[in-house]
Design the sequence.
């Protein structure tokens, strides 16, 4: 089932972007029947429960138009629309520092399409970096999970704006990104990469 | 119009909690036809535009049950319910540090009722403090706006849990809280109080 924003733009819930990549493309991460969002939620619950970091996914923004209030029962939202988020999906705190990230997935075997991101998200990431926040993207691609610092993503975004390629090559991600260890608890141990890169 | 959560709990949108307090009670802040949420949103837009701090209000969490997708138009959410948020309403970054706060208002002239907060919010604030985040509540009360550090709120909350009073007295708020300057741009300059208290 596909949804669209009022502007006609396709709405892709994170839990539908997480389909396992093709078998041959993914020795480590895919074909586990889990979505990237589920794995990150489990990871964040693990971090919370151990007090390692406190990170939550923001609710999907919805424009509420009409609400019914049946007696003695819950309010029912009868008409509402998906809104474009003006920020990234995840933020929180690690050792007092502000963490902010977006998680995206591609099944493209050779590059990561920049169309996975939006201008307003890049602008938000730029503001977070100016405020000295820790900002990055978690990319599920080529059978691995990478942490790519926001500064590198913005570099590739501006290259596209200047007429360059509309994607980040696999080699560029392997060069600019940090591999995130995959496990059971937590599933996507991105704090290890954060610790190595920012502390 | 009143809404309820599926559990029957009353849903009070922030923009309905911000009615101006009684005239006589408020020389400085009330009777301005503005709500606390509107004033904080304007303040956060001001901070963002000047790159002073990047703080956003989280979307209201909604459980989406049914979505219609009319051809060539936006997806329409036809059935959804309000969910209880598991965190505070506002978070963001200031000078690299994580900021997290909730904003509440009372028209009670002599004390601030603790029923304005929920157990899960207190638990969240406790986790943020353990992670060395900057966590507080912004209280509109007695004609003023106060920043009350989360540690003090948790103290008063535990006093209630131990059978003590169910509110924070005006004197306690004046003693434990910091007055936030009220202005035009920004309207509620809470970063001044954050700077004074935490930096």
Sequence:
């Amino acid at each position: 089932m596909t949804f669209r924003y009022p502007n006609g733009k396709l709405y892709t819930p994170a839990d539908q972007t997480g389909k396992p990549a093709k078998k041959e493309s993914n020795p480590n991460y895919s074909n586990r029947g889990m979505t990237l969002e589920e794995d990150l939620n489990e990871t964040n619950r693990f971090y919370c429960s151990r007090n390692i970091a406190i990170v939550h996914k923001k609710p999907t923004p919805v424009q509420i138009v009409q609400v019914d209030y049946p007696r003695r029962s819950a309010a029912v939202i009868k008409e509402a629309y998906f809104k474009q988020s003006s920020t990234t999906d995840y933020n929180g705190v690690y050792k007092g520092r502000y963490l902010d990230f977006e998680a995206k997935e591609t099944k493209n075997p050779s590059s990561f399409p920049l169309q996975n991101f939006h201008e307003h998200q890049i602008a938000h990431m730029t503001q977070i970096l100016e405020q000295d926040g820790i900002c990055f993207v978690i990319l599920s691609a080529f059978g691995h999970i990478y942490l790519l610092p926001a500064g590198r993503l913005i570099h590739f975004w501006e290259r596209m704006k200047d007429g360059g390629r509309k994607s980040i090559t696999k080699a560029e991600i392997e060069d600019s990104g940090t591999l995130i260890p995959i496990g059971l608890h937590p599933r996507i141990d991105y704090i290890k990469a954060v610790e190595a890169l920012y502390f």
